[in-house]
Amino acid sequence: MQLKELGEKPLIDILGKKFSKADPRVLKGIGDDCAAVLPARGKALLSSTDTLTEEVHFSLTYSPPKLLGRKLVNISVSDIAAMGGTPLFILLALTMPATIGEDFVSELYRGVEEACGENATILIGGNLSSTAGESPIVLTSVVLGEVSESEMICRTGAAPGESIYITGSPGEAALGLIGLQSDGPSAITRSPYRNSVARHLDPKPRTKIARTIARKGLATSMMDTSDGLASDLAALAKASNIGAMVKTTLIPISPEMKTYLKDNSLGLDVPLCGGEDYELLFTAREENKEDIERLAGQSGIPITRIGTTEPRDESSKTGNVRFIQNDGKELELKNKGFDHYK
Amino acid sequence: MQLKELGEKPLIDILGKKFSKADPRVLKGIGDDCAAVLPARGKALLSSTDTLTEEVHFSLTYSPPKLLGRKLVNISVSDIAAMGGTPLFILLALTMPATIGEDFVSELYRGVEEACGENATILIGGNLSSTAGESPIVLTSVVLGEVSESEMICRTGAAPGESIYITGSPGEAALGLIGLQSDGPSAITRSPYRNSVARHLDPKPRTKIARTIARKGLATSMMDTSDGLASDLAALAKASNIGAMVKTTLIPISPEMKTYLKDNSLGLDVPLCGGEDYELLFTAREENKEDIERLAGQSGIPITRIGTTEPRDESSKTGNVRFIQNDGKELELKNKGFDHYK
Prior knowledge:
Two copies of one chain form a homodimer.
Chain A: H1 3-6, H2 8-19, E1 26-28, E2 35-37, E3 43-53, H3 65-82, E4 86-97, H4 102-118, E5 122-131, E6 138-148, E7 163-167, H5 172-183, H6 187-190, H7 194-201, H8 207-215, E8 221-224, H9 229-240, E9 242-247, H10 255-264, H11 269-273, E10 280-284, H12 289-299, E11 303-311, E12 321-324
């Protein structure tokens, strides 16, 4: 059955029932003009929105709709994590052709439901609208969350002389995309890069470890990596009005990335410029080094110190982020990360 | 200049500067992973999202981009009004081809800025993403607002035996669209339906009058009319588990609609089924009749009693909403309002 046979309002009814959840903080969920929730006393309200567009962020030829639903929720939740907050509520604005199959929609929402459950978030509202038959699907998620003002971590808090840390190994999602683009959906199970494929299709927001970093006050600035490490670090440095020096030998390279780099005799463009990792990038003072190492051990999530912050150097030809190689020379990247309009 | 020459990040920088506004409730606006605001103590947080899709909701052949920006904000604000709330913050998720002109974008944001100013709302964040060159523009707005729990008006509160009221004259936006589709942009100044054209291109949310209705407790249920009066009233009746009887002779018909109906010898399909009015539809008890009439006089916004609520009649062939004509017979509508997937 296609959406045009089901209709918008019956679909909203189905979603209203599927996602209705007794929760003392939700006064009104799906089905009214607005959702109404009770914010926690004394906390800051966090909000963010993200969009996944067909043929830009995903392709129906290789993105299973359930994973798309999971990713739609998880990439927004990742923004809350990046501020040190707790995600609470989700709204989804979906623009789809009326010819799309009901099975696509139900799988998508199955993924949404799963991810909402894993993140302890509740889908409270959204919007459904149509688009012409051949137009791309555009999926927008909105997340609301909260954080104590004293625990909130922004991009603006870094100072020179601090350490730069990342979770995970950068570029894995981009490597996964390379696998999917070369082998199609079979890459999910058979690609030499299948762990990376999983990172592209089903990223996991680092909410728990980010909350610990925030609660313990371990970071001076933080963001999630969605546009590629080089580009994201430049954004963080710019927001904090500092410079950043990364030692390329310190950058963690996943086993699959090692294989890829060896087979393709490429430089570090994929790990440094590949987007959609949704890992954490943060800065911390020397005094927090041991706590951060302990946190990595306890959580099982690798946290790696990759460099240090510096005073901003306006004369730098590469902006204010330098990648220094083993020989002491600066690495020149061909690509500076994803820009939607470039 | 096209967006692809400007780039996503420079555009975000421009927007961050344009919309940065010192406000004690905004801790973080545009430029971080999330926006962070301080919710008011003891109030419910309202949230809603709406999408305007090219060739479904608007056409670049006749929609001036500034008015599109205004509409994008105003239709979300209208959802807050419909709950009796106060709009506060806006986020925008825009999906546009990289080939779009910078002038389109700057005009769009000029409209956003105007509407934010008129509604005393602040743009605090959003997302920019690209889409293929020929794909439709998809514009999503998110609004956050607040209301005292005791003043919140939902769709679910109506009971049988109450009066049904609407603000304005229904179907004006749909008539405006008919004018635009027949005469193109010249309809804005020269169409016989130019007031209706203005209603389509530049709807005004009924925030102020809705706040008064909420503060004074005048309505038992309320919503805004976006899918057409017949469809919206059916949704309200369903949510409240009641029926509704509307006398067609009571429906306010604007002078332009009168001309249109006479020239086209049509029934009431345009006024009853035309969408995008963003007027208020509400129910009220007899005891509030005089206060409502006084409010209409004071505000200058027409409020008309068009019928009464009834017990739900499951056997009704027209769902649970009846439009009764002067001769006592039930009106059969060809069209029951807009469904995105039908």
